[in-house]
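In response to the reviewer comment on reproducibility (Comment 2.3), we provide here a single inverse folding case reported in full, input and output, so that an independent group could reproduce the run without further information from us. The structure tokens appear first.
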């Protein structure tokens, strides 16, 4: 009987340790059960495998897409498209700066932190465009073709190229068409990192497969109509697949598209106002300063001024919170030293 009692005590003790139940003075206290190491390992391995599969799938898709385009496009058109794709991809990686992962990993989110992330991301994007413009001559010299400088300027600033000369006039509609991708790009900025960090990499892979199929289909239909049509098809694919990504985000993480849209109302409105001011001011300046770079430079300056003033007026509270956050961070670093 005594041996049986000892066995029961050992079993109960093991069960209490397994479920994190501790007995002190009074009644048992139940603590949240910690995940087993095997569960963590399996989740880690699964996440790594899905990430590798996604990266490999993306690389394979890019390779196949460029092979198809190299076969159906003229060398000059293919070079323009390839250069645009490279710079857009590099800009996406650099401008993100890991901010999406920082938001996802943060335990506590407040308006000050989110405001800092947003404005820092905006500053990185503008800084990257400025660096691209500065490095354009060096980049062009590496390929022994100084004419590429004009294309790089266009991609960095996303402005019309009419004043740069007739040689690059064909790049104007392509650049204008690709600039229409800004809305789906902004809306889907956090979709991939959020789903991956929440252990839903399979949803990201599904979206990538749909994007591949729609890209191939749209390109196959539009390629016979020229490069501008291919760019338009690429933009159309982005808008077609945007609801799918937002649906995945709402289904898995309960983040609705309306919530994302309300958060982007202010910056999108400022950007659209800036675009309208640049469009109409460029025509006015061209009538006064025809044949040189002056209309484009004046339009750029006016657009930057309009956007800055609107942001300062409409988002003054957010700018103040961002400045206070930066100051408090610097003070904490100085005090820690």
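Designed residues, in position order:
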């Amino acid at each position: 009987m005594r041996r049986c009692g000892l066995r029961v005590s050992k079993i109960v003790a093991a069960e209490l340790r397994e479920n994190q139940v501790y007995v002190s003075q009074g009644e048992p206290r139940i603590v949240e059960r910690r995940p087993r190491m095997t569960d963590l390992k399996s989740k880690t391995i699964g996440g790594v495998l899905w990430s590798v599969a996604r990266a490999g799938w993306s690389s394979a898709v890019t390779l196949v897409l460029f092979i198809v385009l190299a076969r159906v496009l003229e060398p000059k058109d293919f070079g323009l498209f390839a250069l645009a794709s490279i710079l857009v991809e590099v800009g996406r990686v650099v401008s993100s700066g890991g901010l999406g992962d920082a938001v996802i990993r943060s335990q506590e989110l407040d308006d000050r932190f989110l405001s800092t992330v947003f404005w820092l991301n905006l500053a990185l994007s503008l800084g990257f465009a400025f660096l691209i413009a500065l490095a354009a001559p060096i980049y062009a010299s590496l390929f022994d073709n100084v004419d590429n400088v004009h294309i790089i300027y266009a991609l960095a600033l996303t402005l019309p190229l009419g004043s740069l000369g007739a040689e690059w006039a064909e790049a104007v509609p392509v650049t204008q068409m690709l600039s229409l991708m800004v809305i789906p790009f902004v809306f889907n900025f956090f979709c991939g990192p959020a789903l991956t960090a929440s252990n839903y990499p399979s949803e990201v892979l599904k979206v990538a497969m749909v994007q591949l199929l729609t890209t191939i289909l749209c390109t196959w239909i539009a390629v016979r109509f020229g490069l501008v049509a291919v760019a338009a098809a690429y933009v159309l694919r982005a808008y077609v697949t945007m609801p799918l990504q937002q649906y995945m985000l709402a289904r898995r993480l309960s983040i609705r598209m309306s919530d994302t849209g309300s958060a982007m109302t202010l910056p999108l409105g400022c950007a659209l106002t800036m675009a309208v001011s640049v469009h109409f001011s460029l025509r006015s300046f061209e009538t006064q300063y025809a044949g040189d770079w002056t209309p484009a430079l004046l339009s750029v300056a006016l657009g930057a001024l309009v956007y800055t003033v609107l942001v300062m007026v409409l988002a003054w509270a957010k700018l103040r919170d961002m400045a206070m956050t930066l100051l408090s961070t610097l003070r904490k670093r100085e005090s820690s030293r």
